[in-house]
Amino acid sequence: RAKKAGPGTVCFFEVSDDRVSRDRKALQADLEGAIAREELFLVFQPFLDLGANRITGFEALLRWQHPQRGLVPPSEFIGIAEETGLIHEIGEWVVRRACATLSDWPDDIRVAVNFSAAQFHNTGILQTIVQALADAKVSPSRLEIEITESMLLSKYGSAGPILNALLELGVTVALDDFGTGFSSLTYLRKLPFSRIKIDQSFIRDMLVQPDCAAIVKSVISLARDLNIDVVAEGVETADQLEYLRQISCDEVQGYLISRPVAADAVLKLLDTKKLRATFAA
Ligand code: C2E
Ligand code: MG
Ligand code: MG
Ligand code: MG
Predict the structure, then answer these.
(1) In what residue span(s) does the EAL domain sit (predicted)?
(2) Ligand 1 contact via 127 beta carbon (within 6 Å)
């Protein structure tokens, strides 16, 4: 890249790349102690069931409160965690924390936890999840695991047996960011998914691009025939919500319904009648 840009810019790119990698190393070093320093925490974003007009659960989303940088989003540190192997320790913390939090919620509320492909390279993850559920005394059927298509690609070899063991326990599996990967329908045959989550890019464009609406509609109709529920991610406007209701989308998630909230705000959110009033059909 530096060569193509010409001799005058070589130095600039080298310095810049160097700084980026130094910054990355610094972030990596900080991340190593983040759990011990209690800088990680989870926020929870609700799923709203459009048929029943109620919140059915929450997705756990990881946050890092860095002492100097402030709040670091997962897009900036999950990749580092995956490359360094820290994802195993972090992922274990996430699932234990999510299950412990879930134990305070009503029995008909689920929690969904995101997993990276790398976490399934370590077969210990199965025991970790089983132990987290047992320690929190919550039913496995209340835990959902969110994975992306890429995990079922080359990595299927290691993820498959673990996911199947979890399914046998009653844990459910959702296919996250649907439509952004290869979206081969073959994936839908690999595992008995409970849910498909249509990526937010489709929801954002569906009311402005007819092609996009067609895709969203056919995913919903396909899922219905396969007996899989559909969640629309990233719902931000009332028009989007109305359209998704019309085409019988099962559940929605997005800033319109609620931003991710702190654990101690979850019960309040479940309590509030405001949600129902606002989104009643
Ligand atoms: P994801 O699982 O697809 O999560 C959805 C992301 O969209 C979240 O970003 C959420 O805050 C955001 N979002 C929700 N509603 C809206 C909306 O209406 N509009 C817009 N523009 N965005 C919305 P977040 O929390 O920054 O997480 C980003 C990604 O990081 C997640 O995507 C997931 O892949 C990953 N991630 C988060 N927590 C974990 C974790 O504990 N473990 C692993 N392995 N990955 C995680
Ligand atoms: Mg997710
Ligand atoms: Mg997603
Ligand atoms: Mg339903």
Answers:
(1) 24-274
(2) no
